[in-house]
């Protein structure tokens, strides 16, 4: 049995879902300590809180968080907050983890876009690896994107470098799209979306309703557009509230959400890589609505559209006719997904990478996808 320290970013659910998909398998043979800030902790505590498994410990830690102004992502405030975190808190947090590594002697550290654990691992000589989506910005050839998004990816590639450094580690990039790797990054392992066992074991079918996953700061015009589309819509992310016409609002329930995702006619949501990957695995067309300043999600949305799996516009510029046009082409998008549905599971490949990173005496069983 190996001991693995595993840290992750805390913004949104995507990082935590990736971690959960791997921990589901790793916990049967290994001891894990999960370091989770923010939203990631709130997501994982339902599965691993309060000592539910003897060999999985979940600990809440400090982490970076996006800042919003007037309900919109504020890059200036987010960057300022990140700089303050790096200067004032990061050194002390690294020192705490360094002492934990010395005391507990883990065999491997894994980071999903979290900067503290890689620094602590590097300073102690502990083998470590990165399993995230953000390596897309560093290692992938993004020539098919518009210039502004390519410029953003170039700038963010230096942030990825700041998180992980330049020394030797094992990088695994998880994404629903796999363009060629840039020269010099051939060692980066490309895997599909990290899918939980519940996703893989659920058989999709199609019913006559739309599924929507929205942020709590979603502007009212989005709800208006959904209410006018003429379809029943099941909305998650805004809490349990009275129905508005054919819109029903549901509290977050992962099991019910997976069931609805597997049965919906299409998905209307932000453009996080994890959720888009889950939808495409089920063969579901997607209308994506990234925020105007959320460039990483816009990159995801561009590749979604290039794959013929759906379309997108920014949340600030959505018009009802765009949504109606998407709905009129659902069959077209569904046909385009025929060769992708059911095969985009990156979990076994990521587990294989963990197996290779661990010491030879500590193997990891790699499951066969259902």
Task: Provide an overview of this structure.
The chain is α/β, with parallel strands linked by helices and 370 residues long. The protein has 2 domains: 3-194 and 346-357, Glycogen Phosphorylase B (Rossmann fold), CATH 3.40.50.2000; 198-336, Rossmann fold, CATH 3.40.50.2000. The protein has helices at residues 14-26, 38-48, 75-104, 116-124, 135-139, 147-164, 197-200, 220-227, 254-263, 273-281, 295-306, 320-328, 330-336, 347-357, and strands at 3-8, 31-36, 56-60, 68-69, 72-73, 108-112, 128-132, 170-174, 189-191, 210-213, 233-236, 247-250, 266-269, 286-288, 310-312. The strands form 3 sheets. Strands 3-2-1-6-7-8-9 form a 7-stranded parallel beta sheet, sandwiched between helices. α1 runs parallel beside α2 (38-48) and α3 runs parallel beside α4. It is globular.
* Form type: globular
Derived structural class: alpha/beta
SSE order, one letter for each helix or strand: EHEHEEEHEHEHHEEHEHEEHEHEHEHHH
CATH architecture of the largest domain: 3-Layer(aba) Sandwich
Number of DSSP-assigned strands: 15
The percent range for helix content is 40-55%
Task: Work out the strand percent.
Answer: 15-25%
| Nearest-integer average pLDDT | 90
Give the end-to-end Cα distance, rounded to a whole number of Å. 25 Å
What is the name of the CATH topology of the largest domain? Rossmann fold
Spatial sequence of strands, sheet with the most strands:
3-2-1-6-7-8-9
Number of helices: 14
Number of domains: 2
CATH superfamily of the largest domain: Glycogen Phosphorylase B
For the biggest sheet, the summary is: 7 strands, parallel
- In terms of per-residue confidence, which ranges show pLDDT below 50 for 5 or more consecutive residues? 361-370
CATH C-level label of the largest domain:
Alpha Beta
Rg of Cα set: 20 Å
């Amino acid at each position: 049995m190996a001991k693995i320290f595993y840290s992750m970013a805390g913004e949104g659910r995507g990082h935590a879902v990736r971690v959960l998909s791997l921990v589901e398998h790793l916990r049967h043979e290994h001891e894990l300590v999960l370091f989770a800030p923010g939203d990631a902790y709130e997501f994982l505590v339902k599965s691993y809180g309060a000592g539910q498994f003897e060999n999985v410990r979940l600990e809440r830690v400090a982490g970076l968080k996006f800042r919003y102004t007037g309900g919109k992502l504020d890059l200036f405030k987010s960057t300022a907050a990140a700089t303050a975190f790096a200067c004032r808190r990061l050194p002390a947090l690294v020192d705490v983890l360094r002492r934990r590594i010395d005391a507990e002697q883990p065999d491997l550290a894994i980071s999903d876009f979290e900067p503290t654990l890689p620094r602590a691992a590097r300073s102690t000589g502990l083998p470590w690896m990165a399993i995230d989506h953000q390596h897309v910005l560093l290692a992938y050839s993004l020539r098919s994107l518009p210039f502004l998004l390519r410029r953003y990816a170039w700038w963010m590639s230096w942030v990825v470098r700041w998180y992980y450094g330049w020394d030797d580690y094992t990088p695994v990039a998880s994404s629903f799209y796999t363009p060629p790797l840039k020269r010099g990054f051939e060692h980066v392992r490309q895997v599909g979306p990290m899918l939980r066992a519940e996703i893989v074991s659920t058989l999709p079918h199609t019913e006559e309703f739309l599924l929507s996953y929205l942020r709590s700061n979603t502007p009212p015009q989005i709800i208006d557009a959904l209410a006018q589309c003429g379809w029943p819509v099941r909305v998650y992310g805004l809490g349990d509230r009275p129905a508005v016409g054919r819109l029903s609002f549901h509290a977050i329930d992962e099991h019910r959400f997976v069931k609805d995702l597997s049965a919906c006619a299409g998905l209307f949501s932000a453009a996080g890589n994890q959720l888009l990957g889950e939808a495409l695995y089920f063969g579901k067309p997607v209308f994506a609505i990234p925020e105007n300043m959320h460039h990483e999600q816009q990159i995801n949305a561009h590749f979604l559209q290039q794959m013929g799996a759906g379309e997108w516009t920014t949340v600030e510029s959505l018009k009802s006719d765009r949504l109606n046009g998407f709905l009129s082409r659902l069959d077209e998008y569904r046909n385009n997904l025929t060769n992708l549905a059911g095969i985009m599971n990156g979990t076994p490949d990521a587990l294989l990478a963990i197996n290779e990173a661990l010491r030879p005496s500590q193997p990891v069983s790699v499951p066969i996808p259902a």
